[in-house]
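Propose amino acids for all 390 sites.
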C-alpha cells in the first residue's frame, strides 16, 4: 500500500495542472508562530542558564512571545502603507492555539502534556497584558488576519514518548518546563511537528488520517472560540503536511494552504479544492545572518515578471522585543520594503489569502474600498517540471 502510494504521488507530479498568473503585482504577507510561548522573558533566561543551558548560540534561543506593544508597533507600520486601491497590507497570522499548562503538568509529575487554550490565557508565570485585545484590534483594523497553524507546534506523541523515558531528552525537557519554556526546536529536532513524528520510520512519520482529522477539528474549535470566526487559511507547523492533512483541512472549511519557500509553484487548486500557495520571499531579518532587503526586492520583482504573487514569509520572532529586540530592525526593513514596492509598482495590490482565493475563482475580490478586478490567466504546468526549473 505504501509503495503504491509513492508511485501515485510520483505520477501526480507528472500530471498537468492549472496554475494561476496575474497581470499586475500582488503582495501577500504570511507569518507563523503567533500565540506560541517560548523563553519566559529575562527571568526564564536566567533560570535556564542556572540549570546549565547556555543560550545565545542561535536567534531562536531568544524566541519568547509577542507583546501588545509589539503588535501596536507592527500595526502602526502596516497602516502607514496602502496599495493602488487604498488598502493597507494585511499580515496573515498563523496561530498556535494552545500552550503547555506547566502548573498542571508539574502537579502530575511531568508525565503528560496538559494544554491551555490561548482563549483562556497564558501558562503560569507568563505575563502579557492586553495581548488578546491587541490581536483583535489589529484584526478589526484590517491589518491582521488570523489563520490556522496548529494546536501545538511539536508532535505531542514524540514529546510524551521522550518524557516517559529516562535519559538526556527527559532531563532536558524537565529543565525547560520548570522554567516555563516548552522547547527550543533547533536543540531538540526529535520533538517533530504537530502532524509529523520524527521518531517514526520515514513511511510512518505523518499521523494517521483519522488522527489528523480529529486534531484539526479540535484546533478549529479553539480558533473559533478565540477569534469568533472560522479559519479559511492554514499552514502546517514546519510545513509538514500530506494529502491527509489537506483533506482534513478541506473538510473543516480551509480554503487556502500555505507552503514553504522552497517550491515556488504558481497558485493552484489541489484535488480537495484547496488553493495551494508557495511562499516566494523570505523576509527574516532576525534569523538570517545574511538578510538583504535588496535580495527580497529582487525576489518580489522576479515573481511579478512571471505573473506570480510575491508571498512574503516572516515568522513572529522577527517582531519580538522583550529578551532581544528583533522588532526595531524588522519594522525598519519592512517599512523600507513596502515603500520600495509602492514606489516602483504604482498598481501594486495587497491581498489576504482569502482575497486571492476569491480572485482566482471569480476574477475579482471585495475590499472595504470596493471590488477589485485583476486579469487571471490559467497556465498548465507539472510539479516535476516546475521543481526542475528552480
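Proposal:
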Amino acid at each position: 500500500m505504501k509503495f503504491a502510494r509513492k508511485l501515485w504521488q510520483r505520477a501526480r507530479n507528472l500530471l498537468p495542472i492549472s496554475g494561476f498568473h496575474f497581470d499586475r503585482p500582488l503582495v501577500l504577507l504570511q507569518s507563523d508562530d503567533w500565540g506560541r510561548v517560548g523563553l519566559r522573558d529575562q527571568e526564564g533566561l536566567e533560570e535556564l542558564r542556572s540549570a546549565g543551558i547556555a543560550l545565545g548560540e542561535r536567534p531562536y534561543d531568544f524566541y519568547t512571545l509577542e507583546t501588545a506593544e509589539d503588535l501596536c508597533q507592527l500595526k502602526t507600520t502596516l497602516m502607514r502603507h496602502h496599495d493602488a486601491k487604498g488598502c493597507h497590507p494585511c499580515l496573515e497570522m498563523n496561530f498556535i492555539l494552545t500552550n503547555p499548562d506547566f502548573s498542571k503538568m508539574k502537579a502530575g509529575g511531568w508525565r503528560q502534556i496538559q494544554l491551555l487554550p490561548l482563549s483562556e490565557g497564558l501558562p503560569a508565570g507568563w505575563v502579557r497584558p492586553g495581548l488578546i485585545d491587541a490581536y483583535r484590534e489589529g484584526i478589526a483594523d484590517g491589518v491582521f488576519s488570523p489563520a490556522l497553524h496548529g494546536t501545538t507546534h511539536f508532535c505531542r506523541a514524540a514529546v510524551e514518548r521522550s518524557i516517559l523515558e529516562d535519559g538526556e531528552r527527559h532531563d532536558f525537557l524537565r529543565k525547560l518546563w520548570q522554567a516555563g519554556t516548552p522547547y527550543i526546536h533547533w536543540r531538540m529536532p526529535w520533538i517533530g511537528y504537530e502532524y509529523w513524528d520524527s521518531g517514526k520510520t520515514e513511511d510512518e512519520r505523518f499521523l494517521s488520517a483519522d488522527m489528523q482529522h480529529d486534531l484539526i477539528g479540535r484546533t478549529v474549535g479553539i480558533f473559533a472560540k478565540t477569534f469568533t470566526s472560522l479559519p479559511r487559511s492554514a499552514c502546517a507547523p514546519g510545513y509538514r503536511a500530506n494529502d491527509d492533512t489537506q483533506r482534513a483541512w478541506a473538510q473543516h472549511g480551509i480554503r487556502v494552504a500555505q507552503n514553504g519557500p522552497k517550491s515556488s509553484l504558481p497558485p493552484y487548486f489541489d484535488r480537495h479544492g484547496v488553493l495551494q500557495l508557495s511562499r516566494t520571499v523570505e523576509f527574516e531579518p532576525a534569523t538570517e545572518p545574511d538578510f538583504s532587503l535588496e535580495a527580497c526586492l529582487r525576489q518580489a520583482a522576479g515573481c511579478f515578471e512571471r505573473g506570480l504573487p510575491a508571498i512574503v514569509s516572516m515568522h513572529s520572532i522577527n517582531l519580538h522585543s522583550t529578551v532581544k529586540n528583533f522588532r526595531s530592525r524588522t519594522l525598519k526593513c519592512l517599512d523600507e520594503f513596502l515603500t520600495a514596492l509602492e514606489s516602483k509598482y504604482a498598481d501594486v495590490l495587497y491581498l489576504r489569502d482569502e482575497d486571492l482565493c476569491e480572485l482566482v475563482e471569480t476574477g475579482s475580490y471585495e475590499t472595504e474600498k470596493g471590488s477589485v478586478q485583476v486579469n487571471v490567466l490559467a497556465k498548465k504546468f507539472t510539479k516535476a517540471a516546475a521543481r526542475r526549473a528552480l
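The mean pLDDT is 94. The longest strand covers residues 26-34.
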